[in-house]
Amino acid sequence: MPSAYFVVRATVTDPAKRRAFDEWYSREHMPDAAKVFGAVKAWRFWSVSDPSLHQATYEFADQAALDRAMGGDELKRLVADFDRAWPGVTRTRDLLVLAEEYAAA
């Protein structure tokens, strides 16, 4: 079964808030989310082309594991925690299944 991914993109438009957002996400949100989701691995990125764009990606063993994480009450709690901590920061979410992996020799 191929790996599956949950991708969250947040737009932090105020440059003065990005450092605090980065620290909160690193220390609180991502460790909490990865643990309650049962994620295999998680990554965070800041866009080079658009400094306001933050992306978090959570890897799951397969689509069934991703579906379980997305269907639980913990996702609702995490969304509420985010909204409380960062009102006005917009997000998009995407669910992906690995189609192919290529590694250069």
Detailed description of the structure:
With 105 residues, the protein is an alpha+beta fold. The chain has one domain: Alpha-Beta Plaits, CATH 3.30.70.100. 40% of the residues lie in helices and 29% in strands. The longest helix has 20 residues, at 18-37.
Secondary structure topology:
Layout: E1 4-11, H1 18-37, E2 41-46, E3 53-60, H2 63-71, H3 73-85, E4 90-97
Antiparallel strand pairs: 1-3, 1-4, 2-3
Q: Bin the strand percentage.
A: 25-35%
Between the first and last Cα atoms, what is the distance in angstroms?
A: 24 Å
N-to-C series of helices and strands: EHEEHHE
Number of helices: 3
**Class computed from helices, strands and strand pairing:** alpha+beta
Percent of residues in helices comes to 40-55%
Strands of the biggest beta sheet: in what spatial order?
2-3-1-4
State Rg.
14 Å
- Give the CATH class: Alpha Beta
Q: What name is given to the CATH topology?
A: Alpha-Beta Plaits
Main sheet attributes: strand count, strand direction, barrel closure: 4 strands, antiparallel
Using brief descriptors, characterize the structure shown.
3 helices, Alpha-Beta Plaits, 105 residues, four-stranded antiparallel β-sheet, alpha+beta
Précis, in short:
The protein is α+β, with helices and mostly antiparallel strands and 105 residues long. It contains three helices and four strands, in the order E-H-E-E-H-H-E.
